[in-house]
Amino acid sequence: MRDLLSLSNLQTYFDTERGTVKAVDGVDLTVEPGETVGLVGESGSGKSVTALSAMQLVDEPGRQAGGEVKFGALDTVRRFARQYPKRVARNGNDGFVHIEAARVDRGAVPESPRKNLPDFDDLSDTELGRRLARYDGDLVAGEGEEGPVTIEDGYVDLAAAPEDAMRSVRGGDMGMIFQDPMTSLNPALPVGEQVAESLRLHRYGGRKKDTWTNALREILPFGDEGIDDRVLADVIDILEDVGIPEAAARVDDYPHEFSGGMRQRVLIAIALACRPQLLIADEPTTALDVTIQAQILDLINDLQDELGMAVLFITHDLGVVAETCDRVAVMYAGEIVEEGPVEEIFANPSHPYTYALLESIPREDADRLTPIEGNVPSLIDMPEGCHFAPRCPWSQPECTQGEVPDLQHGPEDVDHRAKCIHEEFDTSIYGSDRGGMSARESTRTDETLVEVDGLKKHFSQAEDLLDRYIGEQPGTVKAVDGVDFDIYEGETLGLVGESGCGKSTTGRTLLRLLEPTDGRVVFAGEDLAGLDKEPLRKRRRDMQMIFQDPLSSLDPRMTVGQTVLEPLKIHDLPLLDVAVEGRTDAAVAGDRVRGPVAPENADVRVEVTGGEARATAITGLVDDDELDVTVDGETVRVEVTAPVRRLRRDRVVELLEAVGLEGDQYGRYPHEMSGGQRQRVGIARALAVDPEFIVCDEPVSALDVSVQAQILNLLEDLQQEFGLTYLFIAHDLSVVRHICDRVAVMYLGEVVEIAETDALFAEPRHPYTQALLSAIPEPDPTAGDDRTILEGDVPSPIDPPSGCHFRTRCPQVIPPDEIDIEQAAYREVMNLRQRVEDEDIDVDAVRASIEGESAVAATDGGQPDVTRAIHDEFFDHDLSGENQRVVKAAIDEVVAGEFEAAADRLRERFESVCERRDPALDDGDHPAACHLYGE
Are 615 and 604 in contact (CB under 8 A)? Predict the structure, then answer.
């Protein structure tokens, strides 16, 4: 069987002022029909450029410097042979359509080509097929058609294809899911129109020529012709296939009206609209929560099985690779360094880089992570030999000499290759010299440092003061709605939950970067709510924050040194060491003096102005000679150890070295540093004022697994060295398990469970926590799949559900005692109830979807058929008796437009304790706010 996609010696270079960046340098990679291939490696290794090169989407100054990109979809070969007959390759011409095998019905060939083609009777079918295709493309049989020439094997050389041909490949034969849906979707167009555009281009012949008039028609309002009924029906079907609820009602919604997970589904819908044979997924789940990630991965797997397409999955999350891929290619510095079946790669990593990547993953049994030292090289003027050699613990002199061979590993019948001179290497030496603090070594004490009691942060949606006073405003966003927890000195408390649950808002409100709506935050015995501006500013020396995105939180116009220096200036640090000569009993005071005495008991005050120190006598006469002062007739020499400017610079260099940066990086700007280095700058800035407590807001979420390991180790070491206390906000639960002493789980503004880390992961009590933990990708291809997939999105914090906020998605919602119903069926009833209460069922769309079916509408206008269709949409499990009767009657009322009556009927029969009362956390060691654990 021919490979669907084949990259051979692919080279993609970028010509820059500093030199030629060899982003992809000799890559060989294949994807078979129906196969899922993972492409993994650190940022900067060339993964995304490889995918863009395959689709010929590399922009200037990038160029494909060499190699082939072969696309072996037979339908595409046949279509292009008919469409571009003169570009069928033959005898070394410049064709991009290659026919490798063909069958010719010679009796069906018209008279004209018989006469004009020499050696007609002597040629093989394949060669004759090539000549006939070049003679007249209409002689080639298209898909599902008959013709004299039937192409049975071939490929399209995408690197040689004209741009016009590539436009029909992209989105039609090959689809791509980009990493960030918000930047990939057009914010000015409804999502339905964006899906319809792909359908028009590739399935309905709506592609137009690139002309100014056509461009104006697209831009100007009168050029918008809307979506015709045929395309609209397909758009709705596609959106339903990717799990968009009430797709018919949402085709006119804009991207900003969808959640992150739903936007990613829209991107998938666009990529799959034309049923591509190859899907390229470029980090499709990197920015998603584990629950949404699990939904997207399941969706891609299901659609792959249904459509039989192949997938090239680009990611740096090795857990995702283990769960989804058949084969894995590991990329480093523009090259594929190892390739093989996923089980073989994870069980027997044969390249040092692959082994080091796997060792960087936070695991349950890992006391301390082993990051890869150094960074991915710049890819300019790369030396000979193995590009990983400068970072490889097993490097030998011959590693940097000449071409590195591809060695076969594993069983003979397994294609497992690694580009390394070592047939094997001693893994026992890796990380044997690592020092620092083990994750198992807790620095927690029994003293409470932070107490959070009933903390609330609500955001008004009023546009101005007038709206607030006259009451004409939309609802209040209850981002944090009554949070309680304590943090002990030296502890790392994890705060986890899905995006939108209020984690980051809690951290910012706790530090009073946002003013709380209600509640108390007590830090070291002091209520922060009672502090005015100046006392709060001084207290902030003890409380700092590490932000999620270092690139957006660092000023691009400030150097690293200036960034770390800034908090020292704001808080008038560091303190001055003062020495007194001439009168040893002279008392020295001053705000900047280390260990000052009360001013009324001092003889000398030290002041700092413009970075320079000056001493004045409080009693007696003042001497004008620098820091010499006269006290009671005696000259006292007051010496400051160093000027403030030098002290500060020394402090910044000390901090940079403490976080693993070099002193010569003092003058660099953020854009000149890698993501991991920028995150280290953010940590150094937080440490500058010697804080006791740091809020770490997703500090490693955007980092590669190797850089993530470095930062986690650094945070552990700094905690041990400086006695720090952390609130660690994250959605990566494997990271939380590794670094945290305790974990608090948040959902929709509330903490629903708190426990010691080991206890929470061993025995999660709240159904939401259980779903979160089950969704963690396991970096083990042999692990079973027992995930709990949560349906739907987090409800709006403007109008959260009554009772337990999680009840609208909970797989264990409690049915009334008096009714007999299976849990799965009750969950479906609750889903129906929610949609009925929201009046979120488009009856007209359902009625339209069943028109023309064999079950013709009855005399009552077709309502029985509509009722059945709505019922089938919500229920996969059987209902019986009174339960079935109530549900049917309620759906009949929905069809009649009586939503309120239907909601009342369903509530009367199926109302749960979970919606009547809000469960509260108890005072035990492992509290969970859930009615499953008693009233």
Answer: yes
